[in-house]
Amino acid sequence: MKEGKEIEVHEEFRILSSEVISRTAFGSSFKEGQHIFGMLNELMILSDRNTFKMSLPIIRYVPTCLPATPRSNWQRIADSIMEMVKNRQEKVKNREVDGFGKDYLGLLLKAYHDEGHSMKISADQLVDECKTLYVAGQETTNTLLSWMILLLSIHQEWQEEARREVLRVFGPDKTPDSDGITRLKLMGMIINETLRLYSPVFAGFMRVVDKETRLGKFDLPVGVQLHIPIMAIHHDPDIWGEDVHLFKPDRFSEGVAKATNNNPSAFMPFGMGPHTCAGFNFATNEAKITIAMILQRFTFSLSPGYVHSPFPVLAVRPEKGVQVIINAL
Questions:
Q1: What is the DSSP letter of 249?
Q2: DSSP state of 176
Q3: Catalytic position from the list 26, 252, 270, 300
Q4: Which of 194, 227, 159 is nearest to 316 (CA)?
Q5: pLDDT tens digits, residue range 114-123?
Q6: Where in the sequence is the domain holding 200, given as residue range(s)?
Q7: Percent of the chain at pLDDT exceeding 70
Q8: For position 75, what pLDDT does the model report?
C-alpha cells in the first residue's frame, strides 16, 4: 500500500464481509456467490423504495421499464441457493466432503434431510435461512466497519487509543485470535458507540402484543402492533445525556447499564431479548478482527472529498462511500 493513498472503504468492506460470510457459512467464496449478493442488494433497494407506497391492483398489468419485481428477484435468489445446495449434495454423494459439512449450510442440510419430524426443515425454510444469513451476515457488518473507520478517522485520539490497545494485546505482527479479541475492551466500547450512532436496523422493529399488557399509562389489547424506533431511542438525551449526538465510546466504559442511565434495554442495535440477532457476536468479532488488523498496519484520516450522506437500505449505508487517506505505519 502506497503512503498517502486514498481509498473508498465501504466497497472494500462489502467485498470483505461477503467473502467472510461466504467462506464461513457456505464453504464457497464471494466470487461464487457474487450474483446472489447482487440480487439481494437490488431487492433491498426495491423493498426500501416501496415500503410506504400504495399501489392499485391494476398497476401490476401496466407495462413499465422498472427493474425486476421483488417476487421475481426472490425466485432468482432461491434458484441460485438451490443450485448451491445441489452442488453440496453432489459432493456428499461423491464423498468429497465429510457428511454435509460443519458450516451453516451443512447444518441446514442435515436438518433438511433429518427424518425426525422435530428437526426436519422444508426446502423453503432452508432457502429462507440462507437468504437471511446472506443479508444479515454481510450488510450489517459492512456498514458497521465503514462507520467505525469514519468515526476513527475523525476522532484521531480514539484511533490512537485503539491502536495502543491492539498493539498491547497482539503486537505489530500477530494475527488476532479468539482469546485476544475478548481482551479488546476499548474496541468493544468503540463498536458499541458506533452501533448507537449508526444502528444497523435504523427503522426499528415490530412487536405484537400476545396478551393484555399495561405499558406506562396505556392498556394494550391483544393483537396491537408496537413499533420500536431504534434510532430515536439511541439518540434520546433522556437516556444517554445531553451529549447524545457526540461520539463518546467511554460512555460504555462501565457497561451498557451505566451508559443508559440504568436502562440497558434502551441499547438494541441487533434487537433485544430472545429476538436478539443470532449473528450479533459473529458481526462484532469480525469487526474487532478487521479493525485490529488495520490498526496494526496503517493510520488513516478522512479525505477532504468525503460527503456525509447516511442512506437507509435495510442498514444505514454511507450513500457516497467513505473515502479515507491511509498511510503505512
A1: G
A2: P
A3: 270
A4: 194
A5: 766 666 888 8
A6: 174-278
A7: 83
A8: 78
Which range among 183-197, 202-216, 289-303 shows the weakest confidence by mean pLDDT?
202-216
Q: Does 273 lie in the same domain as 191? A: yes
**Do 131 and 58 fall within a single domain?**
yes
Binding-site positions: 277
Which region holds residue 212: left if phi is over 0, alpha if psi is between -120 and 50, else beta? beta
Mean pLDDT of 35-39: 69
Please give the C-alpha separations between residue 163 and each of 255, 326, 329, in angstroms, as whole numbers.
21, 14, 11
The yes-or-no answer on residue 37 being catalytic is: no
100 catalytic? Reply is: no
In 3D, which of 157, 171, 323, 146 has the Cα closest to residue 249? 157
pTM of the model: 0.83
pLDDT at 42 exceeding the cut of 80? no
Q: What is the DSSP letter of 131?
A: H
Which among 140, 284, 290, 299 is annotated as catalytic? 140
Instruction: Please give the residue that has the higher pLDDT: either 300 or 31.
Output: 300
Residue 281: phi and psi, rounded to 5, are: -65, -40
Q: Residue 266 carries which DSSP code?
A: G
Cell numbers placing 69: 419485481
> Does 69 reside within a domain?
yes
Residue 183 has pLDDT above 50, yes or no: yes
Regarding whether 189 and 145 lie in a shared domain, the answer is no
Residues at the binding site for heme are 277
Active-site residue, from 277, 282, 284, 300:
277
Using only the alpha carbons of the chain, give its radius of gyration. Answer: 22
Residue 54, pLDDT above cutoff 50: no
- Is residue 117 domain-shared with residue 224, that is, in the same domain? no
Opening angle at CA 283, ends 277 and 284, nearest 5: 110
Helix 280-297 vs helix 9-26: angle between axes, to the nearest 10 degrees? 130
